[in-house]
Design the sequence.
Protein backbone atom coordinates (compact mmCIF):
# COMPACT_ATOMS: atom_id res chain seq x y z
CA UNK A 1 0.00 0.00 0.00
CA UNK A 2 1.30 3.45 -0.83
CA UNK A 3 1.52 6.06 1.86
CA UNK A 4 2.26 9.63 0.93
CA UNK A 5 4.57 11.78 3.02
CA UNK A 6 5.37 15.42 2.57
CA UNK A 7 8.83 17.00 2.58
CA UNK A 8 8.92 17.19 6.35
CA UNK A 9 8.22 13.47 6.58
CA UNK A 10 4.83 13.95 8.12
CA UNK A 11 2.34 11.20 7.32
CA UNK A 12 -0.56 12.08 5.06
CA UNK A 13 -3.40 10.04 3.67
CA UNK A 14 -3.01 6.62 2.14
CA UNK A 15 -4.03 6.68 -1.52
CA UNK A 16 -7.49 5.25 -1.05
CA UNK A 17 -7.91 4.26 -4.68
CA UNK A 18 -4.89 1.93 -4.38
CA UNK A 19 -6.34 -0.04 -1.47
CA UNK A 20 -8.37 -3.25 -1.91
CA UNK A 21 -11.77 -2.04 -0.79
CA UNK A 22 -12.78 -5.45 0.56
CA UNK A 23 -9.85 -5.35 3.02
CA UNK A 24 -10.59 -1.87 4.37
CA UNK A 25 -12.33 -1.52 7.70
CA UNK A 26 -13.45 2.02 8.46
CA UNK A 27 -13.12 3.23 12.04
CA UNK A 28 -14.86 6.28 13.48
CA UNK A 29 -12.97 6.43 16.76
CA UNK A 30 -9.88 4.78 18.21
CA UNK A 31 -10.54 1.06 18.60
CA UNK A 32 -8.23 -1.94 19.12
CA UNK A 33 -6.58 -1.86 15.70
CA UNK A 34 -4.33 -4.71 16.82
CA UNK A 35 -7.29 -7.03 16.15
CA UNK A 36 -7.95 -5.50 12.72
CA UNK A 37 -4.31 -5.82 11.64
CA UNK A 38 -4.04 -9.35 13.07
CA UNK A 39 -7.08 -10.36 11.01
CA UNK A 40 -5.38 -9.09 7.85
CA UNK A 41 -7.58 -6.03 7.32
CA UNK A 42 -6.57 -2.39 6.80
CA UNK A 43 -7.96 -0.03 9.44
CA UNK A 44 -8.73 3.42 8.02
CA UNK A 45 -9.74 6.24 10.36
CA UNK A 46 -12.58 7.97 8.52
CA UNK A 47 -11.97 11.19 10.48
CA UNK A 48 -8.51 11.43 8.91
CA UNK A 49 -9.79 10.72 5.39
CA UNK A 50 -12.34 13.49 5.87
CA UNK A 51 -10.14 16.19 7.37
CA UNK A 52 -7.17 15.55 5.03
CA UNK A 53 -9.39 15.87 1.97
CA UNK A 54 -8.59 18.77 -0.37
CA UNK A 55 -12.05 20.23 0.31
CA UNK A 56 -13.24 18.93 3.70
CA UNK A 57 -15.94 21.63 4.03
CA UNK A 58 -17.42 20.33 0.77
CA UNK A 59 -17.74 16.89 2.37
CA UNK A 60 -19.77 18.46 5.18
CA UNK A 61 -21.98 20.10 2.53
CA UNK A 62 -22.36 16.75 0.75
CA UNK A 63 -23.50 15.08 3.98
CA UNK A 64 -26.05 17.84 4.58
CA UNK A 65 -27.27 17.50 1.02
CA UNK A 66 -27.77 13.79 1.76
CA UNK A 67 -30.00 14.70 4.68
CA UNK A 68 -27.79 14.92 7.77
CA UNK A 69 -28.94 17.82 9.95
CA UNK A 70 -27.10 21.15 9.98
CA UNK A 71 -27.06 21.13 13.77
CA UNK A 72 -25.03 17.92 14.00
CA UNK A 73 -21.30 17.68 14.70
CA UNK A 74 -19.29 18.24 11.49
CA UNK A 75 -17.04 15.23 12.26
CA UNK A 76 -20.09 12.98 11.95
CA UNK A 77 -20.99 14.53 8.61
CA UNK A 78 -17.41 14.22 7.40
CA UNK A 79 -17.25 10.55 8.40
CA UNK A 80 -20.49 9.91 6.52
CA UNK A 81 -19.28 11.66 3.36
CA UNK A 82 -15.87 9.93 3.46
CA UNK A 83 -17.50 6.50 3.83
CA UNK A 84 -19.78 7.11 0.86
CA UNK A 85 -17.10 8.64 -1.34
CA UNK A 86 -14.66 5.74 -0.93
CA UNK A 87 -17.39 3.09 -0.97
CA UNK A 88 -16.30 1.69 2.39
CA UNK A 89 -18.22 -1.53 2.94
CA UNK A 90 -17.48 -2.25 6.62
CA UNK A 91 -17.23 0.04 9.61
CA UNK A 92 -16.48 -0.78 13.24
CA UNK A 93 -19.10 0.94 15.27
CA UNK A 94 -18.29 2.04 18.84
CA UNK A 95 -21.62 1.56 20.57
CA UNK A 96 -20.40 2.64 24.01
CA UNK A 97 -17.57 5.01 24.92
CA UNK A 98 -17.84 7.44 22.02
CA UNK A 99 -21.07 9.32 21.37
CA UNK A 100 -24.73 8.91 20.55
CA UNK A 101 -24.28 10.81 17.26
CA UNK A 102 -21.95 8.08 16.16
CA UNK A 103 -24.45 5.41 17.15
CA UNK A 104 -27.13 7.11 15.03
CA UNK A 105 -24.67 7.34 12.15
CA UNK A 106 -24.13 3.58 12.35
CA UNK A 107 -27.87 3.10 11.97
CA UNK A 108 -27.76 5.25 8.84
CA UNK A 109 -24.95 3.05 7.53
CA UNK A 110 -26.99 -0.07 8.25
CA UNK A 111 -29.95 1.43 6.40
CA UNK A 112 -27.67 2.01 3.41
CA UNK A 113 -26.31 -1.53 3.32
CA UNK A 114 -22.93 -0.88 4.95
CA UNK A 115 -21.89 -3.59 7.39
CA UNK A 116 -21.29 -2.32 10.92
CA UNK A 117 -19.35 -4.35 13.46
CA UNK A 118 -20.14 -3.39 17.05
CA UNK A 119 -17.52 -2.70 19.71
CA UNK A 120 -18.26 -1.32 23.18
CA UNK A 121 -15.92 0.09 25.80
CA UNK A 122 -17.07 -0.64 29.36
CA UNK A 123 -18.83 2.09 31.30
CA UNK A 124 -15.92 2.18 33.78
CA UNK A 125 -12.29 1.38 33.01
CA UNK A 126 -12.22 -0.89 36.05
CA UNK A 127 -14.56 -3.36 34.33
CA UNK A 128 -11.79 -5.47 32.82
CA UNK A 129 -13.98 -8.52 32.28
CA UNK A 130 -16.40 -6.57 30.07
CA UNK A 131 -13.51 -5.12 28.08
CA UNK A 132 -11.90 -8.54 27.64
CA UNK A 133 -15.18 -10.01 26.39
CA UNK A 134 -15.56 -7.19 23.88
CA UNK A 135 -12.03 -7.65 22.58
CA UNK A 136 -12.58 -11.39 22.14
CA UNK A 137 -15.93 -10.79 20.44
CA UNK A 138 -14.35 -8.34 17.99
CA UNK A 139 -11.62 -10.88 17.22
CA UNK A 140 -14.31 -13.54 16.62
CA UNK A 141 -16.23 -11.17 14.35
CA UNK A 142 -13.13 -10.58 12.25
CA UNK A 143 -12.23 -14.28 12.23
CA UNK A 144 -8.90 -14.09 14.06
CA UNK A 145 -7.62 -15.87 17.14
CA UNK A 146 -7.40 -13.43 20.06
CA UNK A 147 -3.86 -14.53 20.91
CA UNK A 148 -2.75 -13.22 17.49
CA UNK A 149 -4.06 -9.79 18.46
CA UNK A 150 -1.99 -9.88 21.66
CA UNK A 151 1.06 -10.70 19.51
CA UNK A 152 0.16 -7.81 17.21
CA UNK A 153 0.05 -5.51 20.26
CA UNK A 154 3.73 -6.29 20.92
CA UNK A 155 4.53 -5.41 17.30
CA UNK A 156 2.59 -2.15 17.42
CA UNK A 157 4.18 -1.21 20.76
CA UNK A 158 7.44 -0.79 18.83
CA UNK A 159 5.75 1.46 16.27
CA UNK A 160 4.00 3.52 18.91
CA UNK A 161 7.25 3.90 20.87
CA UNK A 162 8.59 5.98 17.96
CA UNK A 163 5.64 8.35 18.29
CA UNK A 164 6.22 8.54 22.05
CA UNK A 165 9.79 9.64 21.29
CA UNK A 166 8.40 12.32 18.95
CA UNK A 167 6.09 13.43 21.74
CA UNK A 168 9.02 13.60 24.19
CA UNK A 169 11.07 15.70 21.76
CA UNK A 170 8.16 18.14 21.60
CA UNK A 171 8.22 19.09 25.27
CA UNK A 172 11.64 17.97 26.56
CA UNK A 173 13.88 19.19 23.72
CA UNK A 174 11.49 21.57 21.92
CA UNK A 175 12.56 20.28 18.52
CA UNK A 176 9.13 19.12 17.30
CA UNK A 177 6.36 21.66 16.71
CA UNK A 178 2.93 21.34 18.27
CA UNK A 179 1.47 20.82 14.80
CA UNK A 180 3.90 18.01 13.94
CA UNK A 181 3.12 16.46 17.30
CA UNK A 182 -0.59 16.73 16.52
CA UNK A 183 -0.20 15.05 13.11
CA UNK A 184 1.95 12.17 14.36
CA UNK A 185 -0.12 11.42 17.43
CA UNK A 186 -3.51 11.78 15.71
CA UNK A 187 -2.29 9.42 12.97
CA UNK A 188 -1.74 6.62 15.48
CA UNK A 189 -5.47 5.92 15.53
CA UNK A 190 -4.99 3.77 12.40
CA UNK A 191 -1.21 4.03 11.82
CA UNK A 192 -2.29 5.13 8.34
CA UNK A 193 -3.31 1.56 7.58
CA UNK A 194 0.28 0.27 7.37
CA UNK A 195 2.26 0.10 10.61
CA UNK A 196 5.56 -0.97 8.99
CA UNK A 197 5.69 2.01 6.62
CA UNK A 198 4.43 4.30 9.38
CA UNK A 199 7.21 3.14 11.70
CA UNK A 200 9.90 3.58 9.08
CA UNK A 201 8.75 7.15 8.40
CA UNK A 202 8.52 7.93 12.10
CA UNK A 203 12.13 6.74 12.51
CA UNK A 204 13.22 9.03 9.66
CA UNK A 205 11.31 11.95 11.14
CA UNK A 206 12.95 11.30 14.53
CA UNK A 207 16.41 11.53 13.00
CA UNK A 208 15.48 14.83 11.39
CA UNK A 209 13.97 16.23 14.61
CA UNK A 210 16.84 15.11 16.83
CA UNK A 211 19.26 17.25 14.82
CA UNK A 212 17.15 20.39 14.82
CA UNK A 213 17.73 23.50 16.89
CA UNK A 214 15.15 24.03 19.69
CA UNK A 215 12.06 26.03 18.74
CA UNK A 216 12.21 29.62 19.98
CA UNK A 217 9.17 30.37 22.13
CA UNK A 218 8.17 32.38 25.15
CA UNK A 219 5.08 30.46 26.27
CA UNK A 220 4.15 26.77 26.53
CA UNK A 221 0.56 25.67 26.32
CA UNK A 222 -1.47 22.48 25.99
CA UNK A 223 -4.41 21.77 23.67
CA UNK A 224 -6.97 19.53 25.33
CA UNK A 225 -10.23 18.03 24.06
CA UNK A 226 -10.91 16.30 20.78
CA UNK A 227 -8.61 17.08 17.82
CA UNK A 228 -9.47 20.53 16.40
CA UNK A 229 -11.35 20.66 13.11
CA UNK A 230 -9.99 24.12 12.20
CA UNK A 231 -7.01 24.06 9.87
CA UNK A 232 -4.70 26.81 11.08
CA UNK A 233 -4.82 26.74 14.89
CA UNK A 234 -1.24 25.51 15.29
CA UNK A 235 0.40 27.85 12.75
CA UNK A 236 -1.50 30.77 14.29
CA UNK A 237 -0.32 29.89 17.82
CA UNK A 238 3.19 29.50 16.48
CA UNK A 239 3.05 32.96 14.90
CA UNK A 240 2.32 34.33 18.39
CA UNK A 241 5.46 32.70 19.87
CA UNK A 242 3.52 29.85 21.49
CA UNK A 243 4.86 26.30 21.67
CA UNK A 244 2.12 23.66 22.00
CA UNK A 245 3.78 20.96 24.10
CA UNK A 246 0.75 18.76 24.79
CA UNK A 247 -2.05 17.47 22.57
CA UNK A 248 -4.18 15.63 25.05
CA UNK A 249 -6.53 13.31 23.16
CA UNK A 250 -4.20 12.82 20.20
CA UNK A 251 -1.54 11.60 22.66
CA UNK A 252 -4.10 9.20 24.09
CA UNK A 253 -4.57 7.71 20.60
CA UNK A 254 -0.88 6.73 20.75
CA UNK A 255 -1.49 4.61 23.89
CA UNK A 256 1.12 6.45 25.95
CA UNK A 257 1.35 4.16 28.99
CA UNK A 258 3.48 0.99 29.13
CA UNK A 259 1.18 -2.05 29.27
CA UNK A 260 1.49 -5.79 28.82
CA UNK A 261 -1.95 -6.75 27.48
CA UNK A 262 -4.70 -5.29 25.32
CA UNK A 263 -7.03 -5.19 28.32
CA UNK A 264 -4.50 -3.11 30.28
CA UNK A 265 -3.87 -0.85 27.28
CA UNK A 266 -7.50 -0.09 26.48
CA UNK A 267 -8.50 0.39 30.10
CA UNK A 268 -5.76 3.00 30.60
CA UNK A 269 -6.72 4.84 27.39
CA UNK A 270 -8.74 7.71 28.87
CA UNK A 271 -10.97 8.90 25.98
CA UNK A 272 -13.90 6.43 26.30
CA UNK A 273 -14.27 6.76 30.06
CA UNK A 274 -15.30 9.46 32.50
CA UNK A 275 -13.71 12.91 32.58
CA UNK A 276 -11.85 12.30 35.86
CA UNK A 277 -9.19 10.00 34.42
CA UNK A 278 -8.64 12.59 31.70
CA UNK A 279 -8.20 15.27 34.34
CA UNK A 280 -5.55 13.21 36.13
CA UNK A 281 -3.66 12.78 32.85
CA UNK A 282 -3.90 16.51 32.06
CA UNK A 283 -2.67 17.45 35.55
CA UNK A 284 0.38 15.22 35.19
CA UNK A 285 1.19 16.70 31.79
CA UNK A 286 0.90 20.26 33.11
CA UNK A 287 3.43 19.47 35.81
CA UNK A 288 5.82 17.47 33.64
CA UNK A 289 5.70 19.76 30.60
CA UNK A 290 5.69 23.09 32.41
CA UNK A 291 2.46 24.23 30.76
CA UNK A 292 1.24 27.76 31.50
CA UNK A 293 -2.21 27.71 29.92
CA UNK A 294 -4.68 25.46 28.12
CA UNK A 295 -6.84 25.73 25.05
CA UNK A 296 -9.86 23.49 25.52
CA UNK A 297 -11.07 22.72 22.02
CA UNK A 298 -14.76 21.87 21.82
CA UNK A 299 -16.68 20.83 18.74
CA UNK A 300 -20.00 22.56 18.04
CA UNK A 301 -22.95 20.29 18.86
CA UNK A 302 -20.76 17.84 20.82
CA UNK A 303 -21.83 16.64 24.26
CA UNK A 304 -18.22 16.81 25.44
CA UNK A 305 -18.57 20.59 25.60
CA UNK A 306 -20.35 20.02 28.93
CA UNK A 307 -17.05 18.78 30.42
CA UNK A 308 -15.67 22.31 30.16
CA UNK A 309 -17.16 23.22 33.53
CA UNK A 310 -15.56 20.24 35.28
CA UNK A 311 -12.21 20.88 33.65
CA UNK A 312 -12.25 24.48 34.87
CA UNK A 313 -13.22 23.33 38.34
CA UNK A 314 -10.39 20.80 38.73
CA UNK A 315 -7.57 22.27 36.67
CA UNK A 316 -6.14 25.43 38.19
CA UNK A 317 -4.70 26.89 35.02
CA UNK A 318 -5.91 29.67 32.69
CA UNK A 319 -8.06 27.97 30.06
CA UNK A 320 -9.51 29.29 26.82
CA UNK A 321 -12.49 27.35 25.47
CA UNK A 322 -12.46 27.39 21.68
CA UNK A 323 -15.62 26.26 19.91
CA UNK A 324 -15.54 25.53 16.20
CA UNK A 325 -18.13 24.13 13.80
CA UNK A 326 -16.74 23.40 10.34
CA UNK A 327 -13.36 22.77 8.72
CA UNK A 328 -11.58 25.90 7.52
CA UNK A 329 -9.42 28.70 8.87
CA UNK A 330 -9.94 30.40 12.24
CA UNK A 331 -12.26 33.38 11.91
CA UNK A 332 -11.39 36.88 13.08
CA UNK A 333 -13.26 36.57 16.39
CA UNK A 334 -11.44 33.33 17.26
CA UNK A 335 -8.08 34.89 16.48
CA UNK A 336 -8.88 37.90 18.65
CA UNK A 337 -9.86 35.68 21.57
CA UNK A 338 -6.68 33.63 21.21
CA UNK A 339 -4.55 36.79 21.05
CA UNK A 340 -6.25 38.18 24.18
CA UNK A 341 -5.68 34.87 25.98
CA UNK A 342 -2.00 34.80 25.04
CA UNK A 343 -1.62 38.41 26.13
CA UNK A 344 -3.19 37.55 29.45
CA UNK A 345 -0.85 34.59 29.92
CA UNK A 346 2.11 36.86 29.27
CA UNK A 347 0.90 39.32 31.85
CA UNK A 348 -0.28 38.56 35.33
CA UNK A 349 -3.03 37.26 37.56
CA UNK A 350 -5.22 40.42 37.54
CA UNK A 351 -5.23 40.28 33.74
CA UNK A 352 -6.44 36.68 33.96
CA UNK A 353 -9.29 37.65 36.30
CA UNK A 354 -10.31 40.41 33.89
CA UNK A 355 -10.08 38.01 30.94
CA UNK A 356 -12.34 35.50 32.71
CA UNK A 357 -14.78 38.29 33.55
CA UNK A 358 -15.06 39.27 29.88
CA UNK A 359 -15.26 35.66 28.66
CA UNK A 360 -17.80 34.59 31.26
CA UNK A 361 -19.83 37.64 32.38
CA UNK A 362 -22.12 36.71 35.31
S1 LIG B 1 -16.92 15.60 18.26
FE1 LIG B 1 -18.35 14.87 19.80
S2 LIG B 1 -20.30 14.64 18.72
FE2 LIG B 1 -18.67 14.75 17.20
S3 LIG B 1 -18.12 12.64 16.77
FE3 LIG B 1 -16.72 13.36 18.37
S4 LIG B 1 -17.68 12.80 20.31
FE4 LIG B 1 -19.27 12.64 18.71
Sequence:
Amino acid sequence: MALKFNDNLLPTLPIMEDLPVDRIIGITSTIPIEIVFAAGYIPIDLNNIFICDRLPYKMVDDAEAAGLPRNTCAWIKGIYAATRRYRIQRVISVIQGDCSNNQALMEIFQSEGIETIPFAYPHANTDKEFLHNQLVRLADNLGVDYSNAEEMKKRLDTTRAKVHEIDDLTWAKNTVTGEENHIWTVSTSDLMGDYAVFEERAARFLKLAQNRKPIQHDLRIGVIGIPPICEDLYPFLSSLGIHVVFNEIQRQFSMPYPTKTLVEQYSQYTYPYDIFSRIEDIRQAIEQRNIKGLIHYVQSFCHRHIHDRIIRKYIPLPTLTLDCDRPGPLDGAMKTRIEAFVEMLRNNEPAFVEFRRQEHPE
Remarks:
- Residues 1-5 have pLDDT under 50 and may be disordered.
- The CA atoms of residues 126 and 269 lie 12 Å apart.
- The chain is about 50% helix and 15% strand.
